[in-house]
Amino acid sequence: MTPDEYVQLRDAYFMGNGYIRWDKDAITYALLENDYADGYAYKVQHHGREELLLFREEENAIEVLETTLSEQDLLAVLKRLRIKVPVRVRKSLAAVEREERVGNDKKNRAIRKKILA
């Protein structure tokens, strides 16, 4: 997967309020660092969509650093890749931020509801 492809898929999936965009140089560095640490970056065709999968091998396990796949789809793709060791998924900062946005949106709606009531 090229840095340009990674940037395009990452931006398309994670873009939104609070998203921290990495430019091509930052992605290039991250991909090289991951490669040096026995990691892989794949562009995966799954259910007619292009997805990204960034992971590395860590002491008899696979650590998923970032992906646009759902947990269910991730497990299916890893099975297709014949990866049978335990898998740990590291939540990306963007995923945490997205969860916080959803949580904050719910809180804000509840507060507005109380104010308007």
Q: What's the layout of helices and strands?
A:
Elements (H helix, E strand, L loop, with lengths): L2 H12 L9 H13 L2 E8 L2 E10 L2 E7 L3 H10 L6 E3 L3 H24 L1
Parallel strand pairs: 3-4
Antiparallel strand pairs: 1-2, 2-3
Describe the structure.
The chain has 117 residues and is an alpha+beta fold. Helices cover 50% and strands 24% of the residues. Strands 1-2-3-4 form a four-stranded mixed beta sheet. Strand 3 (61-67), helix 3 and strand 4 (87-89) form a beta-alpha-beta unit. Helix 1 crosses helix 2.
Quick recap:
The chain is α+β, with helices and mostly antiparallel strands. The protein has helices spanning 3-14, 24-36, 71-80, 93-116; strands spanning 39-46, 49-58, 61-67, 87-89. The protein has a 4-stranded mixed β-sheet with strand order 1-2-3-4.
